Amino acid sequence: MDTATEVRTHILDWYEDHFVEFPWRSSRSPYHSLVGGFCTQQTQMSRALETHARWLHAFPTVANLAAAETSEVLRVWGKTGYPKRAVYLQRAAQQCMERFGGEIPSELDDLLSLPGVGPFTAEIVRCFGFGLAVLTVDTNIVRIFGRVFEGDLQPIKDTSKDRIKEISEQFIALGRTDLINPALMDFGASICTGRPRCDECPVSDICKAASKFISGQVPEPQRKNKVYAGSDREWRGKILELLTRYSRPVSEKKIRKILSLESDEQTQRLLMGLEKDLLVSRQNQLVKLG
DNA sequence: AATTCGGGGCA
DNA sequence: TGCCCAGAATT
Predict the structure, then answer these.
(1) Is pLDDT above 80 for A207?
(2) Strand order through the sheet with A250-251
């Protein structure tokens, strides 16, 4: 039995005892999966689940979403983070209406052509929405594969994408991706985490990185965070939050005053950035959401 | 290849 | 405080 087969068997056994349902997994709805894919991009499951439920309540169908006001879309997205995702998701829905007869496509290239849809989200839709035999290679699966098969501590940085793809294809060839895909994702989210729990891991005796972790080695940060306080990101969030609270457009002057922005130049720069990202629009010094 | 883009949770 | 989180687009 080769290593991939053995790892797969152990992970599937683990999954039997740690199965968790997610609303976009069993529903086998391309739309629910698409929303799930967007919600989970760089976002913890707890918050993604809340956004997903809120979103489907507000926009039950692709047609509803496509026809909605963008300001409403941004309000429903709320403080989920990366609000551009909300705009992309609505535009993706609009393109599905225009280009794909109101249906979400199942072809990889078609999905990838939608705004805000990359390899991860596309495969989420294909795996959970359409039940196709694919793996959604997310950060969790990269971590597991890079560690178990290559002995890398921080595979996001250290393991080549080609190698990850090779291993993925091995797993796909072994079948039942409908089981092994969520099993791997959940396993990576709870056992093979950034600081893995090798003492609870069912494949630690196979994993090429386990001895390194057990002897106390620590992975390098996958990316160094910049200071958030006072950053454009923080200001953009404050401006959007302000516009979300008001039901009508707000003047640029008022925005600057309420938020105590340093200068008109800074205010203009931030608003231009938000406008470029289609998060706000401006007319006659008045700023509105969407 | 590096940077940008939120916001919250947790050690 | 620093790092992380079911990524994707832009430069």
Answers:
(1) yes
(2) A250-251, A286-289, A280-283
List phi, psi (to 5°) of A281. -135, 155
As a whole number of angstroms, the distance between CA A153 and CA A219 comes to 5
C-beta within 7 A of nucleic chain B, residues 202-241 of A: 223, 225-226, 228, 231-234, 236-238, 240-241
A193 CB neighbours strand B below 7 A: no
What is d(CA A64, CA A90) in angstroms, rounded to the nearest whole number? Answer: 10
Average pLDDT over residues A114-125: 98
Q: How many residues are given for chain A?
A: 290
Residue A118 token pair: 């990359």
Query: Own/partner pairs for A54-58, CB < 8 Å, 24+ apart?
Result: A54/A78, A56/A23, A56/A32
Count of Cβ atoms closer than 10 Å to residue A165 Cβ: 13
Map out the domains of chain A with their CATH numbers: 29-129 (1.10.340.30), 139-214 (1.10.1670.10), 232-289 (1.10.10)
Report pLDDT for A258. 96
CA angle A173/A13/A8 to nearest 5° reads 25
pLDDT in tens, A63-89: 999 999 999 999 999 999 999 999 999
H/E stretch holding A251:
strand A250-251
DSSP string, A206-222: T-TTHHHHHTT--PPPS
Amino acid at A15: Y
* CB proximity A108–strand C (7 Å threshold): no
The arithmetic mean of pLDDT across residues A192-199, rounded, is 95
